[in-house]
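To close the chapter, one final illustration. This time we ask the reader to focus less on the individual chains and more on the assembly as a whole: which components sit near each other, and how the overall shape emerges from the parts.
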Amino acid sequence: MKEKVDRNLLQEALDLVIHRFPTLTVSLRKGLFWDYLEKNDEKLIVQKEETYPCAPIDPRMNSGYLIRVIYYGRRISFEVFHSLTDGSGAMEFLKTLAYQYLILKGNTVSPDGLLLLPQDAPGSEEVEDSFEKYAYKNDKRNIRLKDGAAYQLTGSALATTGINIIHGVIDGSALNRFTKESGSTITAFLTALLIKVIGSSHYSAREPVTVALPVNLRRQFPSVTMRNFFLVVNVGAEVNDETPFDDVLEEVSGKLKFRTDKKNLQMGINRHFQLQRGMMTRLLPIFLKYPAMRYGFNHIGERTKTMTLSNMGNVKLPETMAHFVERMDIALYPTRKSPISCAVGTVNGRMTITFTLSISETDIVRDFFKELGDLTGLDIEIYSNEWGNSDE
Amino acid sequence: MCNGRFSSSDPDLEDDFYPSYDGKVFGKRQAPRIAVFAGMAIILACIFINLIVMPHFLWVFHATGLVVYGIISLNHTILSKSHLGSKIVGQVVSLTLLFLLMDSQSGFLKWSINYAVPFLIVAGLVMVTLSVLTSRLKWKGHVSLTTMIALSFLPAALYFSGYATVIWPSAFASFYAFMLISGFGMFARQTVWAQLSRRLHI
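The assembled structure is written out below.
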């Protein structure tokens, strides 16, 4: 925001908007075959930020909620357990919260049809399982695009468990014009740049550098669900120091276009539906499901990617609300096998590229921003939570 | 990115983008591990001293029972964030075992199975009932209540198998459990089925 956040007004705004989002106001309960979500009527208290972003949410210390609203200085943050919603759902919540907060501050803002209003009742289509809606139920083929092992990033774990966050703020409109001129997209451009940077200076193995890209399915399969509705596509390339960036960009653009083709995404939706609804999956007790899922996550999902890049795109705010907002950023939690993640968010033409690291080495991030500045000629403002400096 | 600070940061100046982490501790709580380690050290020391000083009288069993009970009480009842029902069950079970151990090590006069254990179980059952009645009936409440009801028939089983010799404390525990099952079945049936269907859906 452009002004310091008022805690009391933020709490008041949260109290007013929270029941507009029934898929988020839940607690996790243990079942025999599945864990399930149960409505939570407790009051959710806003918290002043004291620890690092994406710190584990302990439901017992958070009135049973799997979401957290945090403030610090001029920033309002919303953190959410990924089982409840994806980036689009989280963004809808944050937009409505900020809208209500600005109204309580005495500002005149109008929604302009760009956000969910706190006083409206949630529609049934907002809580639907869109995978079930769009899946071809009879498509039993388990067609999977085979992804081989990818180059894995390694580094020295931070001495204190936490996340080092590095943000780079750039003129998003100018970057968009630049990538359009080169016949590409911002996502393809940033993906290619990451692959090039990692491949050039950190690459000694034979595996390709692969970036996992979450794809918002709502763009091709119309849905207003607040539940998860995304798929992850992997895009990789084998590069070295001598591979020209334009070649990497061309390869990445081609692969990204193919993988995000509607036909391929439909196959992904079908596969997701079959996996979830398969009799074997359903009848397996939860204490066996968890190790199986953990194994699948670590040895199939994590092994096939070098890192994740999530581009939320340009978030549109009502004109009367936009000038109260300075910028937005998104932070993805890094994992043990994927210790660096990247997320991109744009509002009011300002793009924030956020790296989250659980390792102390920052050379990839430094090289990425240096190359980005050199290639585009744009200024980049860098700031960080400086987690890790306290370890010294 | 250069492994150095971008600028000086004042923890009181909230115009910074993030709070200062200097001086904050984010480590894990060590008390439960220290308690287990200290308990094991005490037990080993007791075994050593008992075998050397007075091997004809093995008081080490009393000491071990008390130390293990102390560790369970500290880690599970006091420090743990477990459900209240499970803490009550934990106390009843560990105290029952402690009483049985002490009674058996001091000539087995049966004060434990005749009086102490039945009344302990009834006390636990009353506490679990109150916790379930005063707060919303949750799954862990059901589990604690069911475990306590099952335990309530232990004194009767001990009496009919000939170990216990006094009937009325065992009968009282069983009667209380029967009354609770009846009330539970009559008043909480709908809630129970709703909970079960949620827990067991595939």
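DSSP finds eight helices and no strands in chain B. Helices of chain B lie at 31-53, 60-79, 84-105, 111-134, 139-152, 154-160, 167-187, 189-200. With these observations in hand, you are ready for the problems at the end of the chapter.
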